[in-house]
């Protein structure tokens, strides 16, 4: 274990005054000798500033006008010094021992170390399974094979990733051509620019509440938004390949993954006029669904077969039944 690693925990906050204290506490409570905690408040209008101010010089606090998560994390990264950087969402919580677990596998040549997240409710009580679902740690070469085949791999959202500074230095600051969510870009680029190391333990709490960006059923347009995010991730991956001087993936790869397929299906049924993926259609999605069991994938065959069944039904039934199936899937 490299005990000299400096961890930067960057918390971008906007109007999460009721949660941000838990996030800061969890960062400060980590049993590691070298940690800096940076909180960037993105123009909150609630009591966030008061909550953050209570920590005094135990953290480095920055208060800015509202510019969005991407810019807040750009600001935090610019003033950070860590060898390993965690972008902790202000409604999530790091569990004790996380940094020691990460340090135990840290090495040169990686782009990130990822852990699992436990879904919890607003009171931090378990409320579902883990993200991602996996029992064993896939080797980095296997992750790259999955990415090359389908542009998908098992990965958690932002808070459960520790990024190497070498990797982030190559891509930051993120500009407006990238997705508004920092993790979307970093997750897409990571396998192309270094090894992805997995610790298959739930070491972060993923708080689920009505204001989560991941609450898909809130608006019909959320599904087309996710397809657009997939397209932006592809652009980011293509940029990563240009940085590395290797052939980039083509747009065709967006038709191969099972996760994006489900967003495509929902988008095509609920907001077909807003569907952003060129060349896509309900017949094309049906064709891709039927091929899914035969493509390389990190998902179990049983999972892919369930995706096939849901996709085929959702594409073929009348709209009101399609809406019911989509709501059931994403509730």
TrEMBL record:
InterPro entries: Glyco_trans_2-like, Glycosyltransf_2, Nucleotide-diphossugar_trans. It comes from the Bacteria. Signal peptide: none annotated. Residues 8-110 form the Glycosyltransferase 2-like domain. Gene3D superfamilies: Spore Coat Polysaccharide Biosynthesis Protein SpsA, Chain A (3.90.550.10). Coiled coil: none annotated. This is Glycosyltransferase family 2 protein. It comes from Acetobacter garciniae.
């Amino acid at each position: 274990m490299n005990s000299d690693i400096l961890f930067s925990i960057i918390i971008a906050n906007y109007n999460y005054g009721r949660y941000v204290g838990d996030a800061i506490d969890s960062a400060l409570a980590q049993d590691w000798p070298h940690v800096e905690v940076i909180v960037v408040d993105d123009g909150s209008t609630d009591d966030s500033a008061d909550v953050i101010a209570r920590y005094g010089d135990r953290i480095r606090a920055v208060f800015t006008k509202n510019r969005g998560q991407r810019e807040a994390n750009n600001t935090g990264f610019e003033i950070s010094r860590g060898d390993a950087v965690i972008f902790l969402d202000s409604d999530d919580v790091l569990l004790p021992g996380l940094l020691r677990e990460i340090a135990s596998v840290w090495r040169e040549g990686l782009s990130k170390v990822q852990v699992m997240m436990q879904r919890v409710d607003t009171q931090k009580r378990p409320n579902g399974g883990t993200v991602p679902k996996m029992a064993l740690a896939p080797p980095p070469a296997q992750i790259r094979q999955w990415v090359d085949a389908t542009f998908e791999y098992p990965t958690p959202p932002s808070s459960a990733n520790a990024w190497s500074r070498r990797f982030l230095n190559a891509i930051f600051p993120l500009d407006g051509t990238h997705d508004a969510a920092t993790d979307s870009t970093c997750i897409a680029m990571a396998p192309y620019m270094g090894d992805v190391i997995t610790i298959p333990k739930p070491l972060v709490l993923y708080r689920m509440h009505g204001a989560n960006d991941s609450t898909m059923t809130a608006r019909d347009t959320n599904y087309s938004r996710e397809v657009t995010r997939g397209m932006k991730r592809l652009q980011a991956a293509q940029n990563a390949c240009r940085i590395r001087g290797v052939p980039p993936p083509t747009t065709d790869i967006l038709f191969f993954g099972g996760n994006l397929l489900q967003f495509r299906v929902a988008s095509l049924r609920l907001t077909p006029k807003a569907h952003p993926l060129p060349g896509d259609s309900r017949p094309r999605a049906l064709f891709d669904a039927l091929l899914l069991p035969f493509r390389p994938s990190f998902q179990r065959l049983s999972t892919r077969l369930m995706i096939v069944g849901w996709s085929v039904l959702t594409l073929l039934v009348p709209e009101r039944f399609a809406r019911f199936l989509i709501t059931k899937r994403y509730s």
